C-alpha cells in the first residue's frame, strides 16, 4: 500500500500543492492505484495460466511428433530391409544362373574334348 504521508510530501515538493492525507482526491487516487494493482495481478495470473496451457499443449505436440517420427523410422527400416531382401534374392538368382551356365559350358567343353 502507498504511504499517504510520503505521497502528500512528494506532491508538495513536485507540484507545490498541499493536500491533506484524508483529502478525497488523494483517497480516490489511492483507490485507483489499488484497483489497478488488483487488475494487474489478475492479468498476470491469467497470462501464467495461459502460458501453462500452451506449455502443456507444446509437450503434447512434441510427444505426438516423436511418436510419428518413431513410426516413420520403423517403417523406413522395414521398407529398406524388404528392398535389401529383394535385391539379395535377385543377385542370388542371377549368380546361380551364371554358375549353371558356366557348368554347362564346362560340361560341353569336356564332352567335346573328352
What's the β-strand tally?
0
Largest sheet features: none
- Shape label: rod-shaped
Helix content: over 70%
Give the helix tally.
Answer: 2
First-residue to last-residue Cα separation:
119 Å
Order of helices and strands: HH
Strand percentage lies at under 5%
Overall mean pLDDT = 91
Overall structural class, as computed from helix and strand content, comes to mainly alpha
How many structural domains? 1
Q: Note poorly predicted spans.
A: none
Our Rg estimate from Cα atoms comes to 44 Å
Helices and strands in order, then pairings?
Blueprint: H1 4-15, H2 24-113
What distinguishing features does this structure have?
mainly alpha; 114 residues
Report on the architecture of this protein.
This protein has 2 helices and no strands. The N and C termini lie far apart (119 Å). The protein has 114 residues and is mostly helical. It has one domain. The longest helix has 90 residues.
Quick rundown:
This protein is 89% helix and 0% strand.
Amino acid at each position: 500500500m502507498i504511504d499517504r504521508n510520503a505521497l502528500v510530501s512528494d506532491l508538495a515538493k513536485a507540484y507545490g500543492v498541499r493536500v491533506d492525507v484524508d483529502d478525497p482526491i488523494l483517497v480516490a487516487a489511492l483507490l485507483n492505484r489499488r484497483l489497478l494493482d488488483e487488475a494487474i495481478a489478475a492479468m498476470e495470473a491469467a497470462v501464467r495460466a495461459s502460458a501453462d496451457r500452451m506449455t502443456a499443449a507444446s509437450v503434447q505436440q512434441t510427444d505426438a511428433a516423436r511418436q510419428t517420427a518413431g513410426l516413420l523410422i520403423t517403417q523406413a527400416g522395414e521398407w529398406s530391409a524388404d528392398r535389401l531382401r529383394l535385391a539379395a534374392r535377385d543377385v542370388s538368382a542371377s549368380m546361380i544362373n551364371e554358375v549353371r551356365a558356366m557348368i554347362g559350358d564346362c560340361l560341353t567343353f569336356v564332352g567335346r574334348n573328352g
